[in-house]
Amino acid sequence: MVCFMLVILAMGSIEEPTWSLAFNQTGYITGRPKEALELPNGSLVVSISNKSTAPELLCIEPTGEVRWHRSLLESYDSEISMDCGGFLAPIEQGFAVCFYNEPLLTVNQNVAIVGLSPSGEILWTDILGLQSDSSWRATDLVPSSDGGLLITGRTDHNKFDCFLLKLSATGQREWMLPPGQFEAWPVTALEKHDGSFDVLLISGLAEGFLACVDSGKVLSVLDISSDVLPAWPDYFSVIREHTGRYYLLSARESEIIILENYDENMNEIILPQDCYFSNMNLVENRIIVAGHTEDDRAFLGLYELNGETVWEHFYGGSGDAAFNYPLTTVWVLPLRMGFLYLGWTGFPDCSSQTRLIRLDSEGLLHDAIETSDGTIWKEPDCLEIYSEP
After folding, report:
1. Phi/psi at 323 (5° precision)
2. Which domain holds residue 357?
3. Does residue 149 sit within a domain?
4. pLDDT < 50 regions, the chain
5. What is the CA radius of gyration of the chain?
6. Cα dihedral angle (355, 153, 42, 20), rounded to 10 degrees?
């Protein structure tokens, strides 16, 4: 039995609730939070990977209570430990999650996609790579307008051998761009209004292009300037649409490059000094950026599309000596009201604590303390729950 220690920090107003949760992972558990997704009913789902056990999902009510939590892929765990990925995307009946495993000496990488209902019931499961000698790795999970999904990834056939797989809302394979078409790393993708997908691919340290793909066929290829490509080795970039215009956002060390319609206006966001990038997303006509600092604080910033700053905040760690323990950022999710921060804290005994902080639209946590250097922090209270591995 795996024990999780949940922590509730603060509750805010009913109109725009704020709270913070954490759960401690002790003993042999080395899990890390991966991504978060807001469901239509306002609940929040968080994916968690574990090195030693099956991956987990945690569902939180809009008000901060735990709704449900469960393990996934237990039957595959003896052969493949699904400890990477954790990508989340909505589907017609609920949501889907995608994990893949680190390659072992005797086991290749495999990709698992699982469709679930909002209550956590498994609807379908698809595994890529079980019948292949190649290693398969997912890089993104993209929702489509028909309620299905596009999975982007690569195999080890020719180092970076791209594949795309389109699944229906019920998990049926509809079409595939098989390995061999592009020797490149697919970073991210976005469905356009005509049903085709724009896929950003990196073919070298300073070479990249945008492929338009539909029904397994490549319709066009557009070279992307090396000045706007995401930095190696993380290759973090997102493509988003707003009012009919497409925005390519790429992380390059301490700056974010914003490219409008792929080849028009280019702007940049310069992060505060000693801040390290973790994640970003488009919020209507603004960009939310998450990261952490050299002195182990979390960072969130909201910016205009022209790069101007709306607000920037720093958040402290956890424990009796709050700032002795780092708060490492993993993910930031724009919500219908406010934002969800997802991160983790490591402790000297090698245990770790996953952190979920729901913030208001100004990035603030109600009833929290703000220190003299501007750090937002609140000491946690604890509540125990249990999860069967």
Report:
1. -95, 5
2. 1-30+275-389
3. no
4. 1-13, 27-29, 77-80, 105, 318-323, 381-389
5. 20
6. 10
